[in-house]
Amino acid sequence: MAGIKRNIVRVLGVIFAVLACVPAVMAASAPPLSNVQVLKVQSAACGIENIAAGQERTQCDHSGNIKVYVLEMGYGRAPRVGLDGFELKGKADKVCAFGNGNLTECSGAATKIVGTLYLYDLGSKQEGTFTFSNTSINVPGNTISTQLYIK
After folding, report:
1. Euclidean distance between CA atoms 136 and 107, whole angstroms
2. Which of 25, 95, 107, 137 has a Cα at 20 to 30 A from 9?
């Protein structure tokens, strides 16, 4: 009887030791915030306008219901977003990557979260400087920002 109890204690000890290591192995550190970029501006007047990296203003004169898409690579805290100083609220969806690095929505085979895609509806605002900034949740704690004049 004592031998059986001893074996049970050994087996449980091994199981607990293995389980104690699992979270450390499964948890990967979050990638630091490395880039933020306005990807697209959408409106009834212009349709979808793709925004190039470093572009300072829209090419088209947007009007109607304007939407702005921002891609954030890495993990940020809480973005600060505005149009001419007025705070904007938006919708956020996680962005994942396949093993080859191609970005996709987070579902199915793509399980590595690499960033966030934000969508901001400007409502009745028709023109102004759109600003977006965020601070990385981990080292080095850097703040990255972008801005675009929407006309």
Report:
1. 24
2. 25
